[in-house]
Amino acid sequence: MNIGLIGIGTVGGGTYRVLKDNASAISNKMGIDIKITHVADKNLKLAKDTVDKDITVEENAFALIQNSSIDTIVELIGGTGVALEIVRKALENGKHVVTANKALIAMHGEELVKIANKNNVVLAYEAAVAGGIPIIKAIREGLAANEVEWIAGILNGTTNYILTEMKENNLPFDTALQQAQDLGFAEADPTFDIEGVDAAHKITILASIAFGIPINFEAVHVEGISSLSQKDISYAEELGYRIKLLGIAKTDNSNVEIRVHPTLIPEKRLVANVDGPMNAVLVQGNMVGPTLYYGAGAGAEPTASAVAADIIDIARQSMLSNKTLIPTLGFMPDKIHKKNILSIENIFSEFYLRLTMKNKVGLLAKITNIFADHEISINSMVHKEVKENNLNPDIFLITSKTKESDIDVIIKEIELLPENIEKIVKIRTEELK
Amino acid sequence: MNIGLIGIGTVGGGTYRVLKDNASAISNKMGIDIKITHVADKNLKLAKDTVDKDITVEENAFALIQNSSIDTIVELIGGTGVALEIVRKALENGKHVVTANKALIAMHGEELVKIANKNNVVLAYEAAVAGGIPIIKAIREGLAANEVEWIAGILNGTTNYILTEMKENNLPFDTALQQAQDLGFAEADPTFDIEGVDAAHKITILASIAFGIPINFEAVHVEGISSLSQKDISYAEELGYRIKLLGIAKTDNSNVEIRVHPTLIPEKRLVANVDGPMNAVLVQGNMVGPTLYYGAGAGAEPTASAVAADIIDIARQSMLSNKTLIPTLGFMPDKIHKKNILSIENIFSEFYLRLTMKNKVGLLAKITNIFADHEISINSMVHKEVKENNLNPDIFLITSKTKESDIDVIIKEIELLPENIEKIVKIRTEELK
Which ipTM value was assigned to this complex? Predict the structure, then answer.
């Protein structure tokens, strides 16, 4: 089996190393050797410095795609520019493709899956979601006998590191972000991570393979953590909750929700205790119940571990037959159906609200009456003690399960009260059980 | 594909239900229907009452094994008596076998794997370890590119439920066990669970597929939780640890450790926070780092979820070829090698010790001198305050990493001191990082 690796950067270099350093362990499991035979990178010098002398090195990626001796292309350039062209052409040329590129699959997966199916080749993307955690395999194969009811995942290590630091060391967002950048957990331009886009790419992919729906990135509701206040993290803790940036996908069979936003989770839940740059995905199957998968969501070796697992899977099934074993999106292509995706106003959730209001006699009565008028109950509520220099102490509460549009009406009414000072903070809350 | 199910009890009934209730979801993933076609149970009436009219029901399991129209046998009787005979004959007759029987695989796996290989059929056992968690698939396939360095798992839900109750509600072992029995989490005869035998069956299997060594149940060092005192759980908590019954397998490539015993784990570790009857397996790969897999380790539907996943895997690969895709024990049969298995005296661990001694002047000096003489350091130590009616307050401590035989020498020396009242309690401690 000849394997062409395109992009010898962090993950590409890691993949080369994993297959080389663990060659004997892998060969003992496979009965054959698995080896990168060709490498392409526009930085030809870097490529030559990274790989052994007996590997064919090219500057032009398309030389590998046109090479008929190569069976499998490993795309590790990233992005949706030239990577899209490379993967598309490779599949059209009848080559299996392994990629770690979440943006590519989330935004162009529909087209690429069709090309892969048409050409009877494998398009593998384990490394695109949650790095080294074998979550695609767990859902498509391990839980294949289940109907997946919902998924809730910490899918971005950068934001989880920042949230952990904000909580543990009482840091404001900006300081925690700076620290993440200094330590290499966040990029110079952190927008994709902190605004939830990266997590949204990943939950898009998971929703598709879990529910048998087309890949539809546009349908995801996305909120990041950049406007999150340390205060809300502390208050959540007082109520027994942690705040995590979750990718959430749910279905009741007729409707689907796909969303990424900061979420309060009861501190007792295992996923609430996933700290630092780690990832974890909680999957609820209708037979197995809750299962959780935890590990490193990024980094050269962990991501390479998943890329290499995909290569091994392809090699194993190529030894058996030239047909593909598992449908690319978990379900047979003709069984993938669109389902109605709920807009965010139509989802049901509990809500954490924080109010900043002038402390006058009768204020709490006014607020609670608004909730009562709308027949929405309050599960817990804290009115911080009035102290010197703090005439407008915070009020925070968690509602019962409510339609989001109904909460928005209540928020508007409260914000119209003369006592109201600031915009009300609203954070969704999930019990995850 | 004709599938014969033998044993229509809890898990058997669950498997029948999963494949029936989720038939359309499964068919959407497979492109074909997966259906139990034959059932055998010595309770013929129960079998007939459980399954639909169109299923062939037999009293004699061997009728299914001799039926040449059946491709796959699902053995859900349990135990190592008739189940061994059934699985052996089914494999010899060229049938794939799916089983949830951990005792069978742990004690007779070597023989059965050989028969499966010889007859080129699949022997699948995902449900035998950690119930619904797809841990066999994660290790054999998802982490295939890794050398597994160690595994530490909560592999028995009964004991984890008991330990959780002992900790949360300050119960003695006997009360917590009684409660587990009342709630159906423990059997009338709980010996296999509480003495660690069930967990030992499972870690035996995991060690084999992780390290490429023969299945060798006899080599496992096994200690249960029946002599564990609530006091030690509280003291561990004071030191920042939780006590869990862990199945541990480690290798440094030349030596292997396989053991089951109560273990102190830092409370910060995710696996320390797995409570109630749930299971979790922490797997350290040399490339991916730590990964954790969590879910229900028992129960009809969760176990059936894993049994059904194995059936689906067999069906998928049968559609491709009549060759087997993945070697039964993860490694190619000729690459499975015995490694030296360390006896418990030769392992290295940190140790929690609890001493019950008469409180005399110079006692602590005597004790700490014994450690100093053997050049073993103490990481933390608590001498409970002397109060009225408590002339012999407890002393507990955690040592640095030490060879077990060296600690045993120290324990003997301390127990020979005239102040010593009771046998010293020793519990191994793992940092799990």
Answer: 0.95
